[in-house]
Design brief:
alpha+beta; 316 residues; 9 helices; 23% strand
């Protein structure tokens, strides 16, 4: 497949909590493609998205959506039915990877280390803790650390959690409760079928939540991470293996917690993001740049991969 020129529809926006990030990702992708001479149609997803995609008649759709319904298989299923070629992972992979509990069921039996935990009804939190403190509560199917709470013995949520305290229990009827893993935040991007680098994320305050991810200056990115070689190799191997086991396509990003007091036994995969951000602060473009892949080339590589597999069924 030659590098164009192509007509690319960049699908962005939508109505999830991650809409602002998606708009930034989509605009960055659109400008990069235009800078390389490709024709771009920007589509801010609304309820008429199917008709708009059909009218556009693009060669390929760059899926720059984040969260539900652009990352959970809904949009992928629609595009499959329409016979459209699109970037990133397909229906089945998206359904599994957006759901943290399904991801565990898919990966843990294959030896991928992930934290324990279980689904809890938010209402039950006001009676008793689901796990010994400290523990983490997070939505089952949101990304970008949306709605994550760390419940500690000395925290201000109450003990048990107070019904009127601000937290994800006010927005989600059920949550995933996991043991809190002390230590360091690491992430590894996979592009095509190659793990790139390991980045350590050091928030200036608190933890690596939504604001820390997307507010300039709130998090220090150490890339490549200053960690032992065995941890670097393990992150890259686990990221690539998880990418393959889930059937990811294009780019993905694996997020880890590493308890550096436990060595290799303290490394845990938290989740695999099948639609990693493409904003100026995003981790996949940063790792690619460190390896000499500029932003526009990264975007073209993702598009070209989708076009190259368009001759067969977009599975996974």
């Amino acid at each position: 497949m030659t590098r164009g020129p192509w007509h690319v529809a960049v699908l962005m926006g939508g109505w999830s909590a991650e809409r602002p990030v998606s708009l930034m990702s989509g605009e960055g992708v659109a400008k990069a493609l235009e800078s390389r001479g490709h024709t771009v149609t920007r589509i801010d997803m609304d309820r008429n998205v199917a008709a708009r995609l059909a009218e556009t008649r693009a060669d390929v759709i760059f899926n720059a959506l984040h969260g539900v319904p652009g990352e959970d298989g809904t949009v992928q299923g629609m595009m499959d039915l329409m016979g459209l070629t699109y970037t990133h992972s397909g229906l089945a992979t998206s359904v599994i990877a957006i759901d943290k509990q399904l991801t565990k069921q898919a990966l843990v039996p294959h030896g991928i280390p992930m934290p324990g935990g279980h689904i809890v009804q938010s209402e039950s939190l006001f009676t008793a803790d689901p796990l010994p403190r400290p523990y983490v509560l997070k939505p089952v199917n949101e990304g970008s650390s949306v709605g994550v709470a760390i419940v500690t013995a000395e925290g201000n949520y109450g003990n048990p959690i107070a019904r009127d305290s601000v937290g994800p229990w006010q927005d989600f009827p059920e949550l995933l409760a996991e043991p809190y893993i002390r230590g360091r935040e690491l992430t590894t991007a996979v592009l095509g079928d190659e793990a790139l680098l390991v980045t350590e994320l050091r928030p200036k305050s608190g933890f690596y939540d939504f604001d820390a991810k997307y507010t300039d200056g709130m998090t220090e990115h150490v890339c490549p991470a200053d960690i032992p070689d065995e941890i670097t190799k393990a992150c890259k191997a686990l990221a690539l293996r998880s990418h393959r086991l889930l059937g990811c396509k294009g780019a993905s990003r694996a997020d880890f917690r590493w308890d550096d007091e436990q060595g290799i036994a303290g490394l845990y995969l938290l989740e695999v993001n099948t639609q990693p951000g493409m904003t100026p602060l995003s981790l996949v473009p940063e790792q690619a740049a460190r390896l000499g892949i500029d932003y526009a080339t990264l975007v073209e590589t993702i598009v070209e991969e989708a076009l190259n597999r368009a001759g067969g069924k977009q599975d996974g």
